[in-house]
Structure to design on (342 residues):
């Protein structure tokens, strides 16, 4: 005699009792419940609430789920969500109001944000979703994150994958610049002084275009306020993203200047007048962006591994469909037939 595990027995009894409760009022139950996933039911009301939510979140849904009619896609979306809810319950993953508040606080601190209204605007820009919809979906994201730790084991990206991504996306990782800078501040804030300094740098630019060595000569002089004036104002190979952290305006200007050229006169973030002469441009070396690429690839692996886990778990979960549109679309003749769209 085969002994059925207690966990399986409880699940079977739960489904049986759920079905028994529907049989008392069959017409009403078919109108109210459109699917049973394991021990959970999906009602018509839940489906109607899920339609707009699915439309807003569909770009985050895996491609293999975007088949069939919109009606069936929404039901598949709700079935997959139910799979996650069931697994979270089995792992005792609870997402209450305090847990949600803690998650929001953690995300705000990670982004250096202290004002909730600013955080709401950031969320809308980052995810392209209304804040209320993002907040409604947050419990699912928390459960997903926890399940990734206890149920899913995404593989780490290999060195070959890192190198391959880098070679294919050099234009995305940015560039390193080798350049000389000349920085001069006005003696005071008068218009005459501002104009004088601007014109002085403009004259230096004109001469440097004719004779690039002139720029190095001036940038080595005592008036240059650059910390690198001892080396002729030379900044030797710095990634644009690193420069942006301390000198965002200079980084922006460099991105518009070709190698061997002098920039227009500009004012930096400290309101000083500046010129830069670009001596070299090259893609940011792999070692400078390796950790970032590894993180990006790992997040992709997390997503694909989680989608695979949901698909496999769904295949092993009893699913009963009552929805007539879905049944017709997938040729389901018996409502109590175990069914998966995979």
């Amino acid at each position: 005699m085969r002994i059925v595990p207690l966990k399986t027995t409880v699940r079977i009894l739960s489904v049986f009792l759920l079905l028994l409760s529907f049989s008392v009022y069959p017409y009403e139950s078919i109108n109210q419940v459109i699917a049973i996933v394991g021990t959970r039911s999906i009602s018509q009301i839940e489906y109607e609430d899920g339609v707009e939510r699915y439309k807003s979140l569909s770009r985050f849904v895996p491609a293999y789920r975007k088949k069939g009619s919109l009606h069936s896609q929404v039901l598949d979306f709700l079935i997959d969500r139910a799979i996650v809810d069931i697994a979270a319950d089995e792992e005792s993953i609870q997402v209450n109001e305090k847990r949600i508040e803690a998650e929001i606080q953690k995300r705000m601190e990670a982004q250096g944000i202290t004002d909730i209204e600013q955080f709401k605007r950031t969320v809308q820009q980052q995810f392209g979703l209304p804040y209320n919809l993002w907040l409604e979906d947050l419990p699912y994201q928390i459960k997903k994150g926890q399940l990734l730790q206890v149920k899913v084991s995404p593989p780490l990206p290999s060195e070959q994958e890192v190198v391959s991504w880098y070679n294919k996306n050099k234009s995305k990782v940015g560039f390193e610049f080798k350049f000389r800078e000349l920085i001069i501040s006005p003696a005071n804030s008068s218009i005459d002084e501002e104009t004088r300094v601007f014109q002085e740098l403009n004259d230096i630019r004109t001469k440097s275009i004719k004779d690039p060595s002139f720029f190095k000569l001036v940038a080595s002089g005592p008036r240059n306020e650059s910390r690198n004036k001892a080396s002729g104002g030379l900044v030797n190979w710095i990634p644009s993203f690193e420069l942006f952290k301390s000198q965002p305006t200079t980084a922006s200007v460099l991105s518009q200047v070709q190698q061997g050229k002098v920039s227009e006169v500009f004012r930096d973030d400290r309101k000083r007048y500046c010129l830069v002469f670009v001596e070299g441009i090259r893609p940011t070396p792999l070692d400078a962006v390796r950790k970032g690429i590894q993180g990006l690839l790992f997040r992709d692996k997390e997503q694909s591994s989680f989608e695979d886990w949901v698909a496999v778990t769904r295949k092993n979960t009893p699913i009963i469909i009552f929805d007539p549109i879905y049944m017709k679309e997938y040729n389901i003749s018996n409502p109590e037939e175990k069914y998966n769209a995979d």
Summary: The first strand starts at residue 33 and ends at 37.
